[in-house]
Amino acid sequence: MPTAAMIVIGDEILSGRTQDVNVQVLAQALGARGITLAEVRVIPDDVATIVRTVNELRGQMDNVFTSGGIGPTHDDITADCIAQAFDVGISIRDDARAILATNYADPENDLTDARLRMARIPDGATLIDNPISKAPGFTIGNVHVMAGVPKIFAAMVESIIPTLTGGAPMLSDEVRIEKGEGTLAAPLGEIAARHPQVSIGSYPRAVDGRFVVNVVARSTDADLLATVMAELRQLA
Amino acid sequence: MPTAAMIVIGDEILSGRTQDVNVQVLAQALGARGITLAEVRVIPDDVATIVRTVNELRGQMDNVFTSGGIGPTHDDITADCIAQAFDVGISIRDDARAILATNYADPENDLTDARLRMARIPDGATLIDNPISKAPGFTIGNVHVMAGVPKIFAAMVESIIPTLTGGAPMLSDEVRIEKGEGTLAAPLGEIAARHPQVSIGSYPRAVDGRFVVNVVARSTDADLLATVMAELRQLA
């Protein structure tokens, strides 16, 4: 399966101020497309860190997605960092400017220098549609640069995912078992050992003071998944 | 300030099945202790990836925290990976076994081989208290290995944070401004440029179809933070 990494550019996540919700949106969309989300990194709004991380991951993965830092303010440095990572120029592009202009009643006056920062696109990039607030994301090489605002991020994911080369969609199913993991561990391990092609995870949760276990099986093979689920349901 | 990285060991996060909530808990606790959370990585339940990531980050950071993979089931491989990363042995330890035993009515019979996996501790590690379900986490070198279940993770964070060397606690304040970022960007950039020692972030959100901006200032210097906040409130 093709691989992907996500880079969350986010002082606000690292400080604990904000709960990220974008990882799950991207993860689910990639799974349905048959692309494995192999790693997520959350890094600070720092030029050297962003450039280094983008260059490291774009060499390792089929796709890299970034979230955050493409707005109009001083702390929005992602587009410049991406240009630096790819060693290309960056400037206000006419197509991006025209798209931005559709968001304003009086573009001549409303497209301030700050807002025009959102039309600065690295040379050679293609735009990613933003149906919410117009300011586009962009793709350069295998790197997809998207907004951090959750509604806009989700809309950009919907724009970009269908354009990517996918594999067989990952299928998953799960069974909730009201036993402790300590009891389940041995028979569960036997099932997992019998079916090494199916990823089987065991996730305990506390419910009303007792632990219940959700056992999740994942595979791209529907028949094999059904076989494993039947075995897992015997444990319940 | 001392630095930290967090490694979320979690197929369930990367598949999109589960929303991580542990990052924010750790991030806030570290900020209050004056430790900078400099990076988070979410990686799969894969031995080579875990070993490589732990070794890379423990060399770069003052502290590394892991979450997930220390239960009794076949997919709980974190403790073995940590032993491998540090190139030390791992075995059932009497103190960990004694703590586990307090969780069961009939330890002689209830401490099955599966449950005893939770008493396997890398040589040289010290235990991290788990008041919820007893099975301990552990610290080896600068790496703190904790459970993924949110309630247990949070309890372990409370156990371990006070034992770490902290710096000046990071202080933050914010103001909500009902203007677009495009309007705010120029004056905000001037304030940020005047106070390079204060980290100022601008976070737009959609509220009832309009964008409002939360501007967050962060500093370890209370007086400087107050000065900057006064300037920021002038923009509202």
Automatic annotation (TrEMBL), chains A, B:
It comes from the Bacteria. Signal peptide: none annotated. Residues 5-168 form the MoaB/Mog domain. SUPFAM superfamilies: Molybdenum cofactor biosynthesis proteins (SSF53218). It holds the Pfam family MoCF_biosynth. InterPro entries: CinA, FLAD1_M, MoaB/Mog-like_dom_sf, MoaB/Mog_dom. PANTHER family: NICOTINAMIDE-NUCLEOTIDE AMIDOHYDROLASE PNCC (PTHR13939), NMN AMIDOHYDROLASE-LIKE PROTEIN YFAY (PTHR13939:SF0). This is Molybdenum cofactor synthesis domain-containing protein. It comes from Pontivivens marinum.
